[in-house]
């Protein structure tokens, strides 16, 4: 067996309407279906890439260092696209919790309304195709 690509991500959220608005209106995901307590999103690449399931307003479990760290979403191939995304995020009042130059990508890090960490990145190098170790290049701070 070999994984071919990341198919989809499913997140439990406290308020599906609030989270759907974030993923749709701030990040530009296309919502393809919704029901009470559920929202589905797809770019058209596959049947769905993101599924939100409402759990209600109970306090979230304490954050553990086991499990999900973050989800990466490619938003383009140029620093200009990343800079434009940064401006959109600022206008939407979204806090940037990190900005990193990973050599092969340049990334912004944010939190969704339920505290899930998201990486928004642009590809910057295809070195990894001929030298897989390039993905391990020492991360550097990113200034846009």
Question: What characteristics describe this protein?
Answer:
globular, alpha+beta, 4-stranded mixed β-sheet, 2,3-Dihydroxybiphenyl 1,2-Dioxygenase, domain 1, single chain, 5-stranded mixed β-sheet, 144 residues, 2 domains, 9 strands
How is this structure best described in words?
The chain has three helices and nine strands; from the N terminus they run E-H-E-E-E-E-H-E-E-E-H-E. A hairpin with a 2-residue loop joins strand 2 and strand 3. It folds into two domains: 57 residues, 2,3-Dihydroxybiphenyl 1,2-Dioxygenase, domain 1; 75 residues, Roll (2,3-Dihydroxybiphenyl 1,2-Dioxygenase, domain 1). With 144 residues, it is α+β, with helices and mostly antiparallel strands. Strands 5-8-7-6-9 form a five-stranded mixed sheet, with helices on one face. Strands 1-4-3-2 form a four-stranded mixed sheet, with helices on one face.
């Amino acid at each position: 067996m070999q994984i071919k690509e990341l198919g989809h991500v499913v997140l439990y959220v406290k308020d599906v309407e609030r989270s759907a608005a974030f993923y749709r209106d701030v990040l530009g995901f296309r919502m393809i279906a919704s029901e009470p307590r559920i929202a589905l999103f797809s770019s058209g690449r596959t049947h769905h890439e993101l599924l939100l399931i409402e759990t209600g307003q109970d306090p979230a479990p304490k954050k553990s260092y086991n499990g999900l760290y973050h989800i990466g979403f490619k938003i383009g191939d140029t620093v200009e696209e990343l800079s434009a995304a940064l401006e959109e995020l600022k206008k939407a009042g979204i806090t940037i919790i990190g900005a990193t130059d990973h050599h092969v990508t340049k990334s912004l890090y944010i939190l969704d309304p339920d505290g899930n960490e998201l990486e928004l990145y642009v590809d910057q190098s295809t070195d990894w195709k001929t030298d897989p170790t390039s993905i391990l290049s020492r991360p550097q701070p990113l200034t846009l």
